[in-house]
From TrEMBL:
One of its GO terms (molecular function) is aminopeptidase activity. Belongs to the peptidase M17 family. Residues 308-315 form the Cytosol aminopeptidase domain. It holds the Pfam family Peptidase_M17_N_1. This is Leucyl aminopeptidase family protein. Keywords: Aminopeptidase, Hydrolase, Manganese, Protease.
Amino acid sequence: MPLTFASSDTDALPLFVLEPDGLEPWLEGQDDPTRQWVKASGFSAGMGATLMLPGPDGTPRAALAGYGTAAQRARQRFVLAAAATALAPGDYRLANDLPDDRLETEALGWLLAGYGFSRYHDNAPSCAGLVAPAGVDAARLEILAASEALTRDLVNTPTNDMGPAELEKSARELAGAFGAAIEVTTGDSLLQANLPMIHAVGRAAEQAPRLIDMRWGNSGPKLTLVGKGVCFDTGGLNLKPGASMGLMKKDMGGAANTLGLARMIMALGLPVQLRVLIPAVENAVSGNSFRPQDILTARNGMTVEINNTDAEGRLVLADALVYGAEEAPDLMLSLATLTGAARVAVGPDIAPFFTDDETLARALADAAGQAADPVWRLPFHDPYEALIEPGIADLDNAPKGGFAGAITAALFLRRFTAGAKSYAHFDIYSWQPSAAPGRSKGGFGQGGRAILAALPKVLGL
């Protein structure tokens, strides 16, 4: 179903959103039949509880939704989204006020509750409609929801239908929808264009590796987004065990999130010069796979010793980052499903990021709560630089020891960002392990809304 608000409140039922402490005061203002009905139904305004209120003829005249306690709400990102799928079909309008700092989040969560991945099977949830609450920018929230749906769809699609060629097709469709320019460098042309590490990682697959380069906007600050597009990661010759390979269709989650963020920026018409770079590859196994102990030379001339072919994402990102930094963007961001160490550090729900820019770090931290998109800063810890210097080459793609894996990966990427005026790297998971209100199990957007909310302050928009 389209993730949009109900078009009219003419026939929409009033929806009263109540906390447990507010239920009795609300009941005091109701007639006896309503009080008896609510009490007989056992409705206590617990989080996620709903109740239809019948009119004299037995048809619904209003509905109640439990908002839970403050402590309960602290554990849930989108509280009201639970009511969206629990209420009887139809359209509803809020009949009482929600806190101003929660209104936009709850309205967005309601829209996202309508998402289902239905490409192969009808998984569309039964979701009630909501009239856009007064005080929210309905058009903006619909853009955010549609962009999130794009990210989720891309991540959820398996690699047999979302390889490098299909990822390119999706990028071209997005570019066409918003009048963006797009160029794609494919196969051996990557070598001619001096993008050797993208070629090395992807050359073993049936679908050729490629670099997708999309541009939009002719004025304003330069914003470059780089998304990891590893459409499937076997681990290469350092083959992953089966249990670790099961979710590797999502290893292009960085690219999916980058395209979702790009869609938000273009649909909202932000005054920036946007560039999106996606190295799209499949890390496969064949006779010409790159090997452990190979030494690759990146676009900027730095040499990289390969100590694990399963640390391939940083290799393809490195060439793309150098390429993007050559234009001296005001802000360059990389998004990637890069390390398991990041998940060990903060779990699947938080997007850790790295930056040396204090203004950017503060803006992201402030924006995360506003956007219901939690992020957490991890350090570019300079003393760990020695861990990624093997001696035989400039850099090691997979330092031994297992310590600080997310930090050493981020330090590796930072080596390829010279020229960018400001840089941040997001090590995202892009997967919701189990369903929650407004968050279906599966592909998931992380970091994009926080970045979007931080851009005005960071770029002076």
